[in-house]
Design a protein that fits this description.
eight-stranded mixed sheet, alpha/beta, globular, about 40% helix, single chain, 8 helices, two-stranded antiparallel sheet
């Protein structure tokens, strides 16, 4: 499709932003197909959710705090930056653990999984109280391995949904968050980017902007 053939509403992305800030399927594309494709993400957003102005996410692997406003921006990012027809895989951290530790019928190893997809969304927004410390440690290791593998391939990208809040996630996964911060992986919340763990600058002035991995982020 050349520039003259692109839809004037969405520019060929398949999504438009409504007046209330919610993402919506553009009328130029098959609504049924797109609804099926984005159903897992759309299901995470409350039907009566209200969104503020669109904030474009950086085109890189990152964490995103799971709430309605952030999910609206993530949907726009997936449609706009990944493309309306780009394949992506969404699964929970427990499902990722199964692939990375034991392998499954579909993926014998994490390497097979990374090879099979271009874009990844891992949902770790719910903290399972029945999941023992040993399993959580394996979850953290597998997630780090996934991010390292994906970031080594410039054409690939991974989004990690964290929650219920950034504070709770960081409190339960301190070592993991320190590792993510050292890798230069930020997380998105409240309209901007934050470090997973404070550096020397943010330890003395919480919330002060700091440089992390070449990106300007703040210490939450």
């Amino acid at each position: 499709m050349n520039e003259s053939q692109k839809c004037p509403k969405c520019g060929g992305d398949g999504w438009v932003r409504m007046a209330d800030g919610l993402p919506a399927v553009c009328s130029c594309l098959g609504i049924a197909n797109l609804r099926e494709r984005y159903a897992p993400l759309m299901a995470m957003i409350k039907p009566d959710a209200k969104h503020g102005p669109k904030v474009e996410l950086k085109n890189e692997s990152q964490g995103v705090v799971r709430n309605d406003e952030n999910l609206g921006n993530l949907l726009y990012h997936v449609a706009n930056m990944w493309g309306a027809n780009a394949p992506y895989d969404l699964r929970t951290i427990e499902e990722l653990n199964s692939i990375g530790i034991r392998g499954t019928k579909a993926y014998r190893s994490l390497a097979d999984y990374v090879e099979a997809h271009k874009y990844f969304i891992v949902d770790w927004s719910q903290q399972n109280p029945f999941r023992g410390k040993g399993y959580v440690g394996m979850d953290e290791s597998v997630l780090i391995d996934l991010l390292k593998s994906v970031r080594a391939r410039p054409e690939k990208q991974a989004i990690v949904l964290i929650g219920p809040t950034a504070k709770e996630f960081r409190g339960k996964h301190r070592v993991l968050c320190e590792t993510l911060a050292s890798m230069g992986v930020p997380y998105f919340d409240r309209g901007k980017y934050w470090r997973f763990a404070p550096d020397a600058a943010t330890e003395t002035a919480e919330g002060h902007a700091a440089e992390a991995g070449g990106s300007s982020v703040a210490g939450a």
